[in-house]
UniProtKB/TrEMBL annotation:
The lineage of its organism: Bacteria, Bacillati, Bacillota, Clostridia, Lachnospirales. Residues 176-293 form the DUF6017 domain. Signal peptide: none annotated. This is Replication initiator protein A (RepA) N-terminus. InterPro entries: DUF6017, RepA_N. It comes from the Bacteria. Residues 15-89 form the Replication initiator A N-terminal domain.
Length: 295
């Protein structure tokens, strides 16, 4: 088979499953098989669909449905292997399956790979006395008492990973925000964007701060383009963005001839809608260039 090259923004014209980079850079996830990492990316992709379908439980947590047969077709593995992959993801704590009774599909909660909840269940409280082989990731990280620990995909010199547990809620919130900031700086390749837009550094930093405000918000909803959306849905959307989406937002601001009255709301809407509108935006640019004979 012969495949063509990608040109300009063509790569954004197709659908991709996104597998978190941290799965390949953080030692805590090196035990995951490649198939399990791919399956997590597929499940993560379904979170947005679930949000649109209002598959949200009474605690505001998004869940997905995916049968074993669907997994078999998606990753090309047999029934037994597909079951083992789900078990693998659940053992490390990246998903949680909840059975709903006979004849009803199993709910799958796709866990946030950035911050691991430290509110341990009773069955793991005395983990130092038993076997460590069956203990999930969040328990293995520390032998401390039953306090909240935020584990992130950041390097081990991050204060959240150092094992220094702080009781002050304000300090915990700040640690969480700093962890997300480091994640976004890497995920969005911000240092490269700073070089690419040297005169727009303040705008780029404002975008990061606004994203952090949403990601770390304790509110249940946030207003985007005049609509109140569940904050967890917006947060999920933000965490899946990459540098191309931020470049798109910057281009939109540059090309917008209308004076923006509420720049914060404009940016929030542009960032949230970037994955949905980026293809149409660049396709329109290509069509315009073709019409004018530039290409």
């Amino acid at each position: 088979m012969r495949f063509d090259y990608f040109y300009n923004e063509q790569s954004e014209s197709y659908s991709f499953y996104r597998t978190p980079k941290v799965f390949f850079t953080d030692d805590r996830f090196r035990c995951l098989s490649s198939d399990a990492k791919i399956l997590y990316g597929i499940l993560l992709d379904r979170v947005s669909l679930s949000a649109r379908n209002k598959w949200i439980d009474e605690q505001g947590r998004i869940y997905v449905y995916m049968t074993i047969s669907s997994i078999e077709k998606s990753i090309g593995r047999c029934h037994q292997k597909s079951c083992k992959l789900l078990d693998e993801l659940e053992r490390i704590g990246l998903i949680e399956r909840v059975k709903q009774g006979q004849g009803k599909p199993t709910r799958i909660y796709v866990k946030n790979f950035i911050v691991v909840c430290g509110s341990y269940s009773k069955k793991y409280e005395k983990h130092t006395q038993g076997s460590m082989s069956d203990i999930p990731l969040e328990v293995c990280e520390s032998s401390s008492n039953n306090t909240e620990i935020n584990n992130t995909d950041i390097s081990n010199n991050n204060p959240i990973l150092s094992g220094n547990i702080v009781d002050n809620d304000g300090d915990k919130d700040m640690d969480e925000r700093n962890a997300y900031r480091e994640y976004l700086m890497e995920q969005l390749s911000m240092e490269i964007l700073f070089e690419r837009y040297p005169f727009e550094r303040e705008t780029l930093e404002a975008i990061i701060d606004m994203m952090l405000d949403v990601i770390c918000s304790k509110r249940k909803t946030i207003r985007i383009a005049g609509d109140d959306k569940p904050v967890n849905v917006v947060k999920s959307q933000f965490l899946k963005l990459n540098s191309t989406h931020i470049e798109y937002v910057m281009d939109c601001m540059k090309d917008n001839p209308v004076k923006v009255r509420n720049i914060k709301q404009y940016l929030l809407a542009a960032i949230y809608n970037a994955p949905l509108t980026i293809n149409s935006y660049y396709q329109a640019m290509v069509n315009n260039d073709m019409a004018e004979g530039r290409i």
